[in-house]
Amino acid sequence: MPSATLVLQQVDKRFPGGLLALQSVSLQVARGEFVALLGPSGCGKSTVLRLVAGLEAASAGLLQAPALQPSAEQATAFVFQEPTLMPWASVFDNVWLPLRLRGVSRAAAAPQVQQALAGVGLAAFARAFPRELSGGMKMRASIARALVTQPQVLLMDEPFAALDDITRQKLNTDLLHWWHGRQMAALFVTHSVTEAVFLSQRVLVMAARPGRVVAEVAVPEPYPRDPAFHHSPAFAEACRTLGQALAQAHQGDLSAPPPRPA
To answer: Can you give the pTM of this predicted structure?
Structure first.
């Protein structure tokens, strides 16, 4: 993949206590590509995101990502499982935060912040505080904060897991709208087979003990995708294939002996 934005080649991650979280992880994500990481709890999906974001250092292997470049400035945006909004700040000021950290004044940032809020449907809530928002609205504000810097890479760690199914499906559809056309590389962690199929062009299945990529399932359905895709034969077939790959990965986890400490 010559135009890859993210590259991991034979990457290991061992934590100070000796836990080998990842072993020989290899994956690539191209500019403008949406890739999901799917796997059981504890397989290292979030650790992969933290490595790509520069929040953790790999123990071995090659890792190339914009966040690891010395000249990178807000090239990577990270949306966590929780909205992580500042409760004392308005929605506007929460979205302004990454620009503020770059030295952009509130007045100078206003057009970008307002555009980001309008893009996620929160233009009327700029002066509201997080306590006044629903769970879905809080996540929209968190996504606006990520998109306001126009990043090259968007990392998302199960951002919709705590939401009800109706809100989750709506945000899935909206997320594809926000991502499509921005030429961002998106790496999305989820436990949901249906969510991975709906969002992604490729789904990478991870197995644990230690974490590694064991399967790849392509989802060639073109964008834009709407909720009707959930009821199509292509969706059902992709879910079946991915479910089988996930079951095989999990079965392998249960049958494999634990790795020996180095």
So the answer is: 0.91
